[in-house]
Amino acid sequence: MPDVLVTAEQRNGLLIVVSGPSAVGKDTVLDALLATSNLPHPVRKCVTTTTRAPRPKDGGMEQDGVDYNFVSPAQFNEMVAADEFFEYAEVHGTYYGTPRHWVYERRQEGIDVILKIDVQGGTAVKALSPDAVLIFLQPPSLEELERRLRGRGTESDDEIAVRLINARSELAQRKYYDYGVTNNTVEGAVRAIKAILISEHCRIPHPTG
Asked: Which residue stretches of the chain have pLDDT < 50?
């Protein structure tokens, strides 16, 4: 009997987690990645549900349903009770959740799904889906991260100090991730993530058990 070649089209799409400290440039890098025309496979970024307010972005404001699904704390609690989240967590006093069914449906369609979530959410996803690919986006230095935080102009000095303390804690969790990408430039970070996607699609699946 001839061997059967298992192609990427016969597999579920990849589940990719991208985490990193505040202001490391996760949104900018992922927007640039998804805007490229030569990705190795169809990719969609999951729109996270959050209880925080929209922030300024590109001269305007973040858009509901595009950047995040913005809900009230009461609505978020109702969604938790209805088991609508793949994972959810509290970060800097705000709740974030990943819609369960959207992720499953896209993966079954063979589409790669990117989750932009914090480190505690990343490790939770890995526990639920061991095949998840975890990418840690890191700054060139903490000094550069502080410069980017101050450049956003969306946090007070006290809030920046808290985020820098949390950044040190988040960087310590990098060891639990599969790949580390330093965001020196957006173009370089995009090239690195694209190389990871190509590598993962070339991986030969092995039976478990």
From this structure: 1-9
Q: What is the number of alpha carbons within 13 Å of residue 33 lying toward its C-beta?
A: 29
Residue 98: C-alpha distances to residues 69, 122, 130, 159 (Å): 10, 11, 17, 25
pLDDT reported for residue 208 = 62
* Residue 102: per-residue pLDDT: 93
Model's pTM, two decimal places? Answer: 0.83
Instruction: Say whether 31 sits in a helix, a strand or coil.
Output: helix
Measure the CA–CA gap between 174 and 10, rounded to whole angstroms: 32
Using CA atoms, how far apart are residues 143 and 83, in angstroms rounded to an integer? Answer: 40
Answer for the pair 204, 43: CB distance below 8 angstroms, yes or no. Answer: no
Domain at 8-202: CATH code:
3.40.50.300
Rounded to 5 degrees, what are φ and ψ at 63?
Answer: -105, 135
Residue 89, SS3 per DSSP: strand
Distance of CA 111 to the CA centre of its chain: 15
Reading the block at residue 67, the tokens are: 């950047």
**Amino acid 3: pLDDT:** 44
| Cα–Cα distances in angstroms (integers) from residue 108 to residues 14, 102, 111, 126, 128, in the given order | 10, 10, 7, 18, 16
Compute the distance between CA of residue 89 and CA of residue 80 in angstroms, rounded to an integer: 11
* Domain residue ranges in the chain: 8-202
